[in-house]
């Protein structure tokens, strides 16, 4: 059965749902739950204005919207993304360009759509869309996949949105774009030699990128090398995070119970640091459980990719896997002091509607790929 | 296992790469777990200990800045509570930056771009609170507070803001801006040196005027307290006060704001009728050197700076060719013209070139010795005055008399006497930006690569032209020194320290720079000459003022720049005067100088300005101001 035979009629065939991957949904729901509980715990004794409860309600609203989107995306044949690859790319560039160019004063508020008091940022969903765009391109390369041009064109496709978000400035998302590109190129079968050269070029350009950063971004970026050198200022947040994680011990201090001598020192405002709450409240065991859920989730995503019916589905899967792995590494690595502080959210856990919705959309596509694959024997 | 690449697949699915990806992912996640183990289990104790220590931090408590009062005790620089919006960059996610700042701008009625620029200009820790808008209304502050959920990183707080008042106690910075100056945020460069002195990254510092020159007194001593910080770096509660802040010293100016207003009013009138765009009036007590008024026009509004001046406003000031930000009384130098004949006269008498009684011929045009026949320097009076001695020559302001005095005295003795009278040196007034001026000498000529000064230049130096440039304050101070009997005082701008209500509690002593090393008789001759300027010279009807004393002074017309189409040079006008009880007496307690830049009208505008000021100051019923159309009645020079 060829790609072209996927039709709307087939889309809603009941038998698709027999292949629904319950594990995928389970891990995602578990991670969202961790985020809600930890966000609530972190906000519980926050001496500042951020009321934990109202944030929890918002997160639940986003989760509901996200789940709906997940099921919608699951039930639709994912090939619409391949068909509409070019328009989607133009759309992404347009949204990001507008955000960058006129995302000031008057138009600033318009660039994040507000739904029932919930803000939505385009840079998050652009990550998922760019995975689809790259997947469509790479799948079309077929036997030419090993050529240098594959890497150059894919790099160019990714370079434009990467530059746009970098200029917003959103260093984190720009880095995620790069991570996705590398992961997808590798999995597509692109030439390892050429990729190595490209990687060398990227590393060579790092000083230029660093010089374009704001001073505070730069200071935060290099905190991880020696956080205690500037513990009171630029690296305060990281130092606090390390101390919080370190004081978690085996089983942690429990949820919301810390009181004034404990709670309030975790950087709850910057929810990128949510993993510190996990590690402090639930300890090493809790941290390992969360990491394990991520591990299982990655396993499911890769498996769906391996079993996908076609290259396009496979590439989308590995793109999402790359994104999840990259964000997990950089986010948790930042909190535990092995990665620079960049401000990349922890997938599903970090509070943030745009991020959650975009991820759920991506997982829905994944489910769609899963339900439409021929289940092979492994 | 079935070959997944069989037929229908368009890309080769590499099992190897899938395995590699999976292995890398597994290793990375394991690595995170391992690091977690190291942090939490292996080194857990260490971090638990640190967690307590890092929660407290010593924070500076700013001291209230000292107030500034005028001579009469009315406040002219005060601190008023106002709302300031700050940003903690760490709490404001990059992605939200535009939206949040745009909303704050909307609420405070400014532009998001401006707020962003201020935030981006700040260099420091992302946990510092960066002030982005001061002087916000209470309503706007409350609105921002209400939306705080949607405005991460934004903090609104009350803090003192500097406010500059005029003589009525109303906000009016322009009256005294060149004296009081203003405060502004410390710059990044300042901080390199000031951080050790306890300046904070978002601190304020005096930038101009007394605010800058008395920064140390006004700033006070910042205290410090131990506070608990929360995870995002916010201060949660004060644990203990380590040191209480010491308020800055309150200062009283020597300047009387009401006298300042009269000086400004008279100067504005004179500049207006003569079409002049830059002018100075300064009033001093010659006995003490206290400045009673110092007006430099155009002025600027220092309240604009106190609230954080906008780039547009600042650029308007910078682009103004009349340089409103500069205090022309001390920071700019001009040829003093005939007022400088005081220096030439004293030098000639002291160097033995002439005596008080010796008469010298005067000419319509003075033949420069050694120059080709016909190369002569004109007197302003092309007929000449006939033979004159010092007093009459000074009163009539004969140029050819003083050419001869200068040439006979020589350039270096003339320069030495200029310095003796305070020219070519800083007066030492405690205001920033004073200029020493230019006094021609052999040394000066050598610096320009010449062997010496030309004779023509020497003659010109004798009448304060061409090779002499001075500040209006120097002119005033030299006449004040002669008026008080030979004490060159250091001009004072701050009278002393006060309590919070403006009562003087510690008076600064007047400071003698040096005694003028001249025969008292020489100074007496010049004082008589200065009196004669008013009574028989060409200060015109100013002699008719019913003043409580014998006004003495000197007019000046100083050519500058390039020839006009009419073949003449544009000129500045000067008038300097003091008011002793009788002719030649050394008890004057009022001296005044007025200077009008490029006052190209037939009469001496500056004399008119001084006349009008004296009418106002002594509240005279007379109004002897000339009809502006009738300025030609006054003989220039």
Task: Supply the key terms.
heterodimer, A: 378 residues, mainly alpha, two-stranded antiparallel ribbon, 16 helices, 2 strands, disordered N terminus, B: Penicillin-binding protein 2a (Domain 2), Beta-lactamase, 2 domains, 7-stranded mixed sheet, 5-stranded antiparallel sheet, elongated
Helix/strand layout:
The complex is a heterodimer of chains A (378) and B (637).
Chain A: H1 8-11, H2 22-44, H3 52-75, H4 80-83, H5 85-102, H6 105-108, E1 113-115, E2 118-120, H7 122-141, H8 148-166, H9 171-188, H10 192-204, H11 206-211, H12 215-221, H13 236-246, H14 274-307, H15 311-335, H16 353-371
Antiparallel strand pairs in A: 1-2
Helix pairs in contact in A: 2-3, 2-14, 3-16, 5-7, 5-8, 7-8, 7-9, 7-15, 7-16, 8-9, 9-15, 13-14, 14-15, 14-16, 15-16
Chain B: H1 15-42, H2 44-53, E1 56-61, E2 68-69, E3 75-87, H3 97-108, H4 112-121, E4 130-136, H5 138-146, E5 154-164, H6 177-180, E6 182-185, H7 188-194, E7 204-208, H8 209-213, H9 215-219, E8 223-229, E9 235-243, E10 250-253, H10 257-274, E11 279-285, E12 290-297, H11 302-306, H12 311-319, H13 328-331, H14 341-350, E13 365-367, E14 376-378, H15 390-396, H16 399-409, H17 411-420, E15 438-439, H18 442-447, H19 455-462, E16 468-469, H20 472-483, E17 487-489, E18 494-498, E19 504-507, E20 512-515, H21 520-535, E21 552-559, E22 571-578, E23 591-596, H22 605-617
Parallel strand pairs in B: 2-10
Antiparallel strand pairs in B: 1-8, 2-3, 3-4, 3-5, 6-7, 8-9, 10-18, 11-12, 11-23, 13-14, 15-16, 17-20, 18-19, 21-22, 22-23
Helix pairs in contact in B: 3-4, 10-22, 14-16, 14-17, 15-21, 16-19
As for the number of domains of chain B, it is: 2
Q: Indicate the CATH class of the largest domain in chain B.
A: Alpha Beta
What Rg of chain A, in angstroms, do the CA atoms define? 21 Å
Query: Which superfamily, in CATH terms, is the homologous superfamily of the largest domain in chain B?
Result: DD-peptidase/beta-lactamase superfamily
Largest interface: A-B, 103 and 72 residues
* Helix/strand order of chain A, N-terminal first: HHHHHHEEHHHHHHHHHH
State the end-to-end CA separation of chain B. Answer: 113 Å
> Unreliable segments of chain B (pLDDT under 50, ≥5 consecutive)?
1-8
Shape of chain A: globular
Largest sheet of chain A: 2 strands, antiparallel
Average pLDDT reading of chain B = 88
Counting helices, strands and paired strands, the structural category of chain B is alpha+beta
Please report which band the strand proportion of chain A falls in: under 5%, 5-15%, 15-25%, 25-35%, 35-45% or over 45%. Answer: under 5%
- What portion of the residues of chain B fall into strands of 2 or more residues? 15-25%
The helix content of chain B, as a percent range, equals: 25-40%
Largest sheet of chain B: 7 strands, mixed
Oligomerization: heterodimer
Shape of chain B: elongated
């Amino acid at each position: 059965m060829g790609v072209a035979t996927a039709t709307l009629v087939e889309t809603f065939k009941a038998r698709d749902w027999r292949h629904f991957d319950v594990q995928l949904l389970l891990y995602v729901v578990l991670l969202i739950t961790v985020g809600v509980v930890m966000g609530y715990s972190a906000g519980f004794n926050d001496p500042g204005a951020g009321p934990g409860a109202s944030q929890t309600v918002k997160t639940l609203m986003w989760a509901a919207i996200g789940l709906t989107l997940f099921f919608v995306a699951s039930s639709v044949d994912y090939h619409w993304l391949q068909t509409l690859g070019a328009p989607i790319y133009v759309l992404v560039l347009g949204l990001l360009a507008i955000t960058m160019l006129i995302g000031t004063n008057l138009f600033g508020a318009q660039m994040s759509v507000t739904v029932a008091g919930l803000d939505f940022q385009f840079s998050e969903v652009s990550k998922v869309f760019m995975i689809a765009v790259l997947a469509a391109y790479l799948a079309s390369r077929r036997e030419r996949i090993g050529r240098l041009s594959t890497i150059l064109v894919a790099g160019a496709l990714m370079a434009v949105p990467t530059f746009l978000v970098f200029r917003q400035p959103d260093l984190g998302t720009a880095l995620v774009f790069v991570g996705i590109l590398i992961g997808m190129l590798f999995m597509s079968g692109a030439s390892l030699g050429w990729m190595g050269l490209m990687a060398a070029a990227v590393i060579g350009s790092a000083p230029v990128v660093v010089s374009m950063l704001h001073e505070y971004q730069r200071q935060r970026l290099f905190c991880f090398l020696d956080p205690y050198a500037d513990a009171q200022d630029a690296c305060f947040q990281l130092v606090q995070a390390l101390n919080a994680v370190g004081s978690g011990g085996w089983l942690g201090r429990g949820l919301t119970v810390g009181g004034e001598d404990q709670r309030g020192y975790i950087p709850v405002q910057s929810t990128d640091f949510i993993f510190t709450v996990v590690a402090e409240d639930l300890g090493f065991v809790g941290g390992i459980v969360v990491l394990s859920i991520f591990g299982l989730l990655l396993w499911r995503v890769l498996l769906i990719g391996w079993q996908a019916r076609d290259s396009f589905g496979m590439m989308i899967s590995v793109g999402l896997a790359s994104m999840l792995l990259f964000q997990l590494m950089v986010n948790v690595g930042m909190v535990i002091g092995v990665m620079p502080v960049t401000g990349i959210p922890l997938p599903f856990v970090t509070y943030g509607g745009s991020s959650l919705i975009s991820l759920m959309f991506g997982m829905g596509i994944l489910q769609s790929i899963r339900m439409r694959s021929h289940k092979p024997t492994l | 296992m079935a070959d997944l690449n069989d037929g229908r697949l368009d890309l080769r699915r590499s099992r190897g790469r899938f395995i590699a990806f999976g292995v890398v992912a597994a290793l990375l996640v394991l690595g995170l777990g391992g690091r977690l183990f190291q942090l939490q289990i292996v080194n857990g104790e260490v971090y638990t200990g640190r967690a307590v220590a890092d929660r407290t931090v010593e924070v500076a408590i700013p001291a209230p800045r000292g107030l500034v009062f005028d001579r009469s005790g009315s406040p002219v620089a005060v601190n008023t509570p106002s709302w300031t919006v700050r940003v903690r960059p760490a709490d404001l996610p990059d992605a939200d930056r535009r939206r949040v700042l745009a909303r704050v701008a909307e609420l405070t009625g400014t532009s998001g771009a401006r707020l962003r620029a201020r935030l981006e200009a700040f260099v420091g820790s992302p946990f510092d609170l960066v002030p982005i808008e001061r002087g916000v209304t209470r309503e706007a502050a409350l609105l921002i507070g209400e939306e705080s959920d949607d405005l991460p990183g934004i903090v609104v707080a009350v803090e003192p803001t500097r406010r500059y008042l005029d003589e009525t106690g109303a906000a009016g910075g322009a009256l005294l801006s060149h004296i009081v100056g203003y405060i502004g945020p410390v710059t990044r460069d300042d901080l390199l040196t000031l951080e050790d002195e306890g300046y904070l990254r978002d601190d304020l510092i005096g930038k101009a005027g007394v605010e800058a020159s008395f920064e140390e007194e006004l700033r006070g001593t910042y205290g410090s307290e131990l506070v608990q910080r929360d995870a995002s770096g916010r201060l949660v509660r004060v644990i203990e006060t380590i040191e209480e802040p010491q308020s800055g010293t309150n200062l009283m100016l020597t300047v009387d704001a009401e006298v300042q207003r009269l000086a400004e009013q008279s100067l504005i009138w004179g500049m207006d009728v003569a079409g002049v765009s830059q002018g100075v009036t300064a009033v001093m007590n010659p006995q003490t050197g206290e400045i009673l008024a110092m007006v430099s026009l155009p002025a600027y509004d220092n309240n604009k700076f106190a609230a954080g001046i906008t780039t547009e406003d600042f650029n308007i000031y910078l682009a103004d060719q009349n340089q409103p930000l500069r205090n022309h009384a001390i920071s700019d130098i001009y040829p003093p013209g005939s007022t400088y004949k005081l220096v030439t006269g004293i030098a000639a008498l002291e160097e033995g070139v002439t005596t008080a009684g010796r008469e010298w011929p005067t000419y319509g045009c003075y033949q420069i010795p050694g120059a080709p026949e016909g190369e002569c320097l004109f007197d302003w009076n092309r007929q000449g005055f006939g033979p004159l001695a010092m007093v009459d020559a000074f009163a009539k302001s004969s140029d050819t008399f003083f050419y001869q005095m200068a040439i006979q005295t020589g350039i270096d003795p003339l320069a030495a006497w200029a310095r003796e009278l305070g020219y070519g040196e800083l007066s030492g007034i405690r205001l920033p930006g004073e200029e020493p001026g230019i006094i021609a000498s052999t040394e000066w000529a050598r610096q320009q690569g010449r062997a010496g000064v030309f004779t023509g230049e020497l003659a010109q130096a004798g009448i304060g032209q061409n090779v002499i440039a001075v500040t209006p304050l120097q002119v005033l101070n030299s006449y004040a020194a002669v008026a008080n009997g030979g004490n060159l005082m250091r001009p004072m701008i701050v009278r002393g320290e006060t309590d919070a209500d403006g009562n003087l509690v510690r008076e600064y002593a007047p400071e003698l720079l040096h005694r003028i090393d001249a025969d008292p008789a020489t100074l007496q001759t010049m004082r008589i000459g200065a009196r004669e300027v008013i009574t028989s010279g060409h200060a015109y009807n100013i002699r008719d003022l019913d003043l409580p004393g014998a006004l003495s002074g000197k007019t000046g017309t100083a050519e500058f720049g390039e020839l006009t189409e009419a073949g003449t040079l544009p000129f500045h006008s000067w008038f300097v005067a003091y008011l002793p009880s009788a002719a030649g007496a050394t008890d004057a307690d009022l001296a005044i100088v007025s200077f009008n830049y490029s006052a190209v009208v037939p009469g001496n505008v500056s004399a008119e300005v001084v006349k009008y000021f004296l009418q106002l100051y002594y509240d005279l019923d007379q109004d002897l101001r000339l009809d502006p159309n009738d300025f030609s009645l006054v003989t220039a020079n």
